[in-house]
Design goal:
By secondary structure, the chain is of the alpha/beta class. The chain is built from 12 helices and 8 strands. Strand 4, helix 10 and strand 5 form a beta-alpha-beta unit.
Length: 400
């Protein structure tokens, strides 16, 4: 399939002729750079280092040598440009592709135009910000079997690549401030929240009731916690599953070890199947993530929000997919149809405008009541208590 889309005449100018926004914040500057890069993608031109630098310097009004931006920002701009491309041309690509395999081939050509991520920022390392490769995101969206009547939520939306591939009505959540701001620009019709997705069910607005969850959570870190958190991804999955309407479907990309055939996780998944039945799980070769700055083996897991008849039984794993085409073939052949929803999904409208920052609170002196020198101070009442043996919660994690 031919991926190159004729660019509109007004977008065909060279990058240096574009003007930067006035005093942009980081998110709007990244968005501006993405818009400068979009014509290159539409012409089928690779985004090399020189093109990236030109766009970033035009958008930020300065070079990275002065600290105005870092190369991680440039990679974010590349991903945002891909999102803009998919938002504009995705429907036509789907119509022309003829099949999921044809669409995957077109997406692979688009992904090949972006550079390999070779540099990281402190934030990207601390929050494990590795965006979903487009080909892998497409396989996940096919597994989700999304329909126009669904509400799709992505709890760790990043720069929106997975959401852009998925299509359909969206609700997005992203903990990192700059990325959340960027999502608001890229998906103006979708609500964007900024919660810790490990507790997305607890914090998300009650009115949002999704029928599909697409997620690529951090594998081993947690917000406000230093060091490795072994069950970080499982916490994200369990909380997102709790938010789904009955009969909904969750599709998660996690580390390869998060599987019921791993003795460390089997009992966790047995308990999870009391609420959601796993219907597919397959490993993914590390090469699929190589261009996004990491080399770890991953896993695609599909869970339907219906209790399993036997929580101790899980679907067989077909193995480790060496490429996206193999994974897509497994998904198409092995993932069963979705169950019937018990209730229609519900979404809330996106805000019409960006929220106005709260006014600064100026401390004001308050008079301190004076006590009569002879008045007694209430000593309070001693608290009586006794120690009791505790029972671990259902999840087995006392920290919950």
């Amino acid at each position: 399939m031919n991926l190159i889309v004729p660019a509109p005449a007004e977008q065909s100018a060279m990058l240096p002729s574009q003007s930067a926004p006035t005093a942009p914040d980081r998110a709007s500057a990244i968005l501006h750079a993405a818009r400068l890069l979009l014509p290159s993608l539409e012409r089928g031109q690779a985004l090399d280092a020189a093109t990236l630098r030109t766009a970033m310097e035009a958008a930020f009004g300065a070079s990275d040598t002065g600290g105005a931006w870092v190369w991680k920002d440039a990679y974010e701009a590349c991903e945002a440009a891909q999102v803009l491309f998919l938002r504009r041309h995705g429907p036509a690509m789907r119509a022309r592709s003829g099949s999921p395999a044809g669409m995957l081939a077109m997406l692979a050509r688009l992904a090949a135009l972006a550079p390999t991520h070779t540099r990281r920022s402190e934030e990207s390392t601390a929050l494990q910000q590795f965006s979903t490769p487009i080909a892998l995101g497409f396989a996940a969206s096919v597994a989700a079997a999304i329909t126009p009547s669904d509400l799709v939520i992505e709890p760790s939306a990043g720069t929106g690549l997975l959401a852009a591939v998925a299509g359909g009505p969206l609700a997005l959540n992203e903990f990192a401030e700059t990325r959340a701001e960027l999502l608001g620009h890229l998906f103006p019709g979708a609500p964007v929240s900024r919660h810790d997705a490990a507790q997305i069910h607890d914090y998300l607005e009650p009115a949002i009731a999704p029928s599909v969850v697409l997620m690529n959570p951090p594998f081993s870190i947690a917000a406000h916690v230093e060091g490795r958190v072994a069950d970080a991804a499982f916490r994200h999955v369990a909380s997102a599953l709790a938010r789904l309407v009955e009969g909904g479907r969750l599709v998660a990309i996690t580390g390869i070890s998060l599987a019921p055939d791993n003795p460390s996780w089997r009992e966790h998944f047995v308990r999870l199947q009391a609420r959601g039945r796993m219907v597919f799980s397959a490993g993914i070769d590390r090469r699929l993530y190589a261009r996004h700055g990491t080399a770890v083996e991953t896993r695609l897991t599909v869970i339907d929000r219906v209790p399993a008849e036997d929580p101790t039984v899980f679907p067989p794993c077909p193995g480790i997919a060496p490429d996206a085409a193999t994974l897509l073939e497994w998904v198409t052949r092995l993932v069963p149809p979705r169950p019937v929803l018990s209730a229609p999904p519900i979404a809330v409208a996106a805000p019409a405008a960006r929220p106005v920052p709260p006014r600064a609170i100026v401390p004001r002196p308050h008079p301190i009541p004076t006590r009569h020198p002879e008045s007694a101070i209430d000593p309070g009442i001693a608290l009586a208590y006794e120690l009791r043996d505790g029972t671990p919660p259902e999840s087995g994690l006392i920290s919950d």
